[in-house]
Design brief:
This protein has 96 residues and is mainly alpha-helical. The chain has three helices and no strands.
Length: 96
């Protein structure tokens, strides 16, 4: 592959991983305040974040053992995102 294609793919992978990382982190922080906050805009933003991140978190929750009231699936998802990003980038750089 040519260098510009590899560079483009690495940047896309990094951009998507970073965007999803921030979506998950914002969702986690907002979840701490969603119960006591009655602002409609806040709940609408939170609902969108849940819809965007739940397809990744739900399978992780099914596999993980129960940890009581604490949901550790976002932490696992954040680690998996970084792991997959690193593996894909290394694979692309090795092929190039």
């Amino acid at each position: 592959m040519t260098d510009w294609i590899v560079t483009f793919l690495v940047r896309v992978i990094h951009g998507l991983a970073t965007a999803f990382f921030w979506l998950l982190l914002i969702r986690v922080i907002m979840s701490w305040f969603v119960q006591g906050n009655y602002n409609r805009t806040f709940h609408d933003v939170y609902r969108v974040l849940v819809q965007l991140t739940e397809p990744i978190l739900a399978p992780i929750r099914r596999v993980m053992p129960a940890t009581g009231p604490m949901d550790l699936s976002p932490l696992v998802a954040l680690l998996l995102i970084r792991l997959v990003e690193t593996l894909l980038v290394r694979l692309l750089l090795a092929v190039a």
